[in-house]
C-alpha cells in the first residue's frame, strides 16, 4: 500500500530550522490498522500530512500504491488524494452551513459525479454510519460523536484505499471514542487500510500495530493483539 524510506522534514523557524522527521522508514500493507503514537510535537501530524499529500518531505522516498509521490503539481496531488485517500480529523472539519448529506456529497462532487448519484451515494454512506435520519441536519445540531460519523461517511464516500485519521477521538469522551473506534475496526474488518494518529494508549491498543515516534525517528514498531472496542460500547 505504501512505502516510506529515509524521510526527512524540517520547518524553518526564523533563521534556524526545526528538524522534525529524521529518517523515517515505514511500510504499510493493504488491510493493516496502524496507530502512530508519540508525545505532542513528536511529528505525528507532520508524517500523516506527508502521507496524505497535504505536505511534502524534504528528503526521502514515498511510494503510494505504486506511485512515487514527488514534486507533483497541486492538480496531480489533488487527483491522487481524491483517488487514494480519505481524511478524518480531531475537529471533524465539517462545513457548518452545509447539511450532513451535503458534507458527505462534497468529495463526490469533486469526483465529478452527477447530482442523483451524489445523493444516492451520500445517503448510502450516512446509512452506513447510522445517520440516515440526520441527513438534513447541520453540524451544529449534531453531537461530537455524530459529527465524527458524518466526517467518516465523507471520508468513505469516494471509496479511498487508505483512511488517514489524525487524533479522531481527541475531541470525544471515552465512551464516544470507543464507539468511533468500534466503527473504524469494523471498516478494517471489511478490508479498509487505516492509519490512526493518537497519543492515547487505549486507542492505540485497538489497532493491530503500533508505531512509536520519538525525537524524529521510529523508536518502536510492533504488532499488537487488537483490543475490540465494541465490548466497551
Ligand atoms: P504532533 O502531531 O506529534 O503533535 P506535529 O507534527 O504537529 O507534532 O509537529 C512537530 C513539530 O513541528 C512541533 O514542534 C511543531 O511545533 C512543529 N511544526 C509543525 N508544523 C509546523 C509548521 N507549519 N511550521 C513550523 N513548525 C511546525
Ligand atoms: Mg498532531
Question: How would you characterize the overall build of this protein?
Answer:
The chain is an alpha/beta fold and 233 residues long. The chain has a single domain, classed as P-loop containing nucleotide triphosphate hydrolases (Rossmann fold, 3-Layer(aba) Sandwich). The chain is 33% helix and 28% strand. It contains seven helices and ten strands. The chain has helices at 44-51, 74-84, 100-110, 115-128, 144-157, 174-189, 201-204, and strands at residues 2-13, 16-28, 33-37, 59-64, 67-68, 85-89, 162-166, 193-197, 209-214, 217-223. The protein has a six-stranded mixed beta sheet, sandwiched between helices. It has a four-stranded antiparallel beta sheet with strand order 2-1-4-5, covered by helices on one side. The longest helix has 16 residues, at 174-189. The radius of gyration is 18 Å and the shape is globular. The mean pLDDT is 95.
Our count of helices gives: 7
Under the CATH scheme, the architecture is 3-Layer(aba) Sandwich
- Dominant shape: globular
The CATH fourth-level homologous superfamily: P-loop containing nucleotide triphosphate hydrolases
Radius of gyration: 18 Å
Amino acid at each position: 500500500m505504501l512505502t516510506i524510506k529515509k524521510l526527512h522534514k524540517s520547518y524553518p523557524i526564523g533563521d534556524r530550522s526545526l528538524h522534525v522527521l529524521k529518517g523515517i522508514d515505514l511500510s504499510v500493507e493493504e488491510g493493516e490498522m496502524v496507530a502512530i503514537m508519540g508525545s505532542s510535537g513528536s511529528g505525528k501530524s507532520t508524517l500523516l500530512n506527508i502521507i496524505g499529500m497535504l505536505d511534502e518531505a524534504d528528503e526521502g522516498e514515498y511510494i503510494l500504491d505504486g506511485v512515487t509521490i514527488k514534486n507533483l503539481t497541486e492538480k496531480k496531488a489533488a487527483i491522487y488524494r481524491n483517488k487514494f485517500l480519505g481524511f478524518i480529523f480531531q475537529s471533524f472539519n465539517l462545513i457548518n452551513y452545509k447539511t450532513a448529506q451535503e458534507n458527505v456529497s462534497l468529495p463526490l462532487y469533486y469526483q465529478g459525479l452527477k447530482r442523483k448519484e451524489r445523493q444516492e451515494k451520500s445517503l448510502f454512506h450516512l446509512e452506513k454510519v447510522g445517520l440516515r435520519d440526520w441527513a438534513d441536519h447541520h453540524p451544529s445540531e449534531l453531537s461530537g460523536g455524530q459529527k465524527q460519523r458524518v466526517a467518516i461517511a465523507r471520508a468513505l464516500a469516494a471509496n479511498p484505499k487508505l483512511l488517514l485519521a489524525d487524533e479522531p477521538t481527541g475531541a470525544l469522551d471515552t465512551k464516544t471514542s470507543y464507539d468511533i473506534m468500534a466503527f473504524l475496526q469494523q471498516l478494517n474488518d471489511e478490508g479498509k487500510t487505516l492509519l490512526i494518529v493518537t497519543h492515547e494508549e487505549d486507542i492505540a491498543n485497538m489497532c493491530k500495530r503500533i508505531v512509536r515516534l520519538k525525537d524524529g525517528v521510529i523508536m518502536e514498531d510492533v504488532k499488537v493483539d487488537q483490543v475490540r472496542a465494541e465490548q466497551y460500547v
